[in-house]
Amino acid sequence: VQASRNTPELLLGLGIVCLGVFICTEAAGIRVSPAYAKVGPAVFPWIIGGLLALAGALIGWQSLRAAPTPLPPIEYAGVAAIAAGLLLEILLFERAGFVASAIILFMLTAWGFGSRSYARDAIVAVILAVFVYFVFTRALGLKLPQGLIPL
Amino acid sequence: VSALDQLMAGFAAALTLQNLGWSLLGVTLGTAIGILPGIGPALTIALLLPVTGYLDSTSAFIMFAGIYYGAMYGSSTTSILLNTPGESGSIVTALEGNLMARQGRGAAALSTAAIGSFIAGTIGTLLLTFTAPYVVKFAIKFGPAEYFSLMVLAFTTASAMLGASMLRGVTALIFGMALGLVGIDELTGQARLTLGFPQLLDQIDIVVVAVGLFAVGEALHVASRPDLRSATIETVRGSLMMTREEWRRSWKPWLRGTALGFPFGALPAGGTEIPTFLSYFFEKKLSKTPEEFGKGAIEGVAGPEAANNAAVAGVLVPLLSLGLPTSATAAILLVAFQQYGLQPGPELFNTSGPLVWALIASLYIGNVMLLILNLPLVGLWVKLLSIPAPLLYGGILVFSSLGVYSLNRSTFDLGLLFLVGGVGYLMRRFDFPVAPCIIGLILGPLAEEQFRRALSIARGDWTVFFTHPLSLVLLTLAAIMLVLPLVWRPKTA
């Protein structure tokens, strides 16, 4: 059974409306000194928040009016693997170092793209991570967290 | 000093051994990322920005321009052999090009694409050379009200032209502008939309947004859809030397494609896709044998490929002479200029004339390099297509997180990258175009600056945008751009 795209689009439209309203409430909270009363820092946030809310409402309205259209099926495991790789990267980048977190991100992404050649992926990941680390830190003189692996 | 003299000085600067090297590096890298799916010129230049701070500005821009031009050449190879375009400007090329490849005429398709790209790129660069100084003379008279109205026009055309639905384009654009609001307001020093994060005071870095939307969003999307990955690579068959018949059928589409592509790129009309669709449509109409379209007609490759390269040259006109980016890559290039403390616009030709003319001269040189790189050496490039997708995307994400981290050496930016990547995924899932978001992020703050400057000069009188004649004309054009798609819909594409 293919999922319909109308309901998720309605939710998306509502989400955009909420974002627009949020920007407007933030705009209302900006203190405007009298010197800038006419063209102060709150004018653009008000306009953009209002337009965004309007656009979200139109998107939601369109999804209510449109005939049910299917949304192509997706593979959640792949998305989850890559998302996990990126989240681990945030946690590990400075603690475990660039090389270790890059290897993990690479392996998880490859898995998410359907690869089950673990040995090949691991070899490529290690070579890439170590090579990039040396080019960045030695040739370009940029600083990267070294972490657990002494290089 | 005439444009020709300045161009000659530009050639002298671009032809130094060092700058030839940067140009060659740029066009080679550009061809490679054009061929590889999942990575394009906007993403590549964004990832290079943190590293190129060390480079001399002229060399950096010569390399960036090479990447932009090279990507257009490379992506046609992917369209023809893989039936999935390397970049959005080559979507149409896949229609006839891939059919030609399946029939054993792949070499001829690659030849007409490369030679057409060369001719269109060279004519487009010539037009850039001679129109940009005129646009500058015109733009010198612009005040803040005119600039603001020009940006409104660019906003409407960018969202109307890019993507399938105007509502979605506009939404993406406004979302980008909302991201552009985050940070300290430069005029009053007030924090806006920072949610209490001190890291957000200094605005959201364009590199984080571009990498998140293009690399992370794309990786998540392609991983979620195994059906997008099952493509077969055609081998290059036939002779790269086109027959007399193929030349005869190609040269007019090349010139017509150029004539369509350049103005579409140069007017604030956004991007390289529309002229390729129009070119395909015209070639089919003008053909004496329209029944060949859909079965591998060489005109359907020659025209659109010329159109997208001419459009790239066209995009540089408003970017250099007005400071107005009309494509995602142009928006990133604008940021690159700002990184070097340069502001594209009429003043750029006065303050940094040598840089601009060296850049333009390098485009002529880059086109020659690209013709040589892409025709005799096409066999080498094809090997890039056999890189397995898991390794390719693994590498893209490693480089993406590396580039984003090295901006401020902060994992906060990696968190931001993750969030923007999620938004990029949702945009692809629900058919929102990504480019207007990047354009909104860059142009939004510039538009606000001009808007407030215009209003404070006019002492808060909002009618200033309608009483200046030029500003009124630009706003009227913008209104027409918004209304036109509602009343007139082309039947094709």
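The longest helix of chain B spans residues 106-139.
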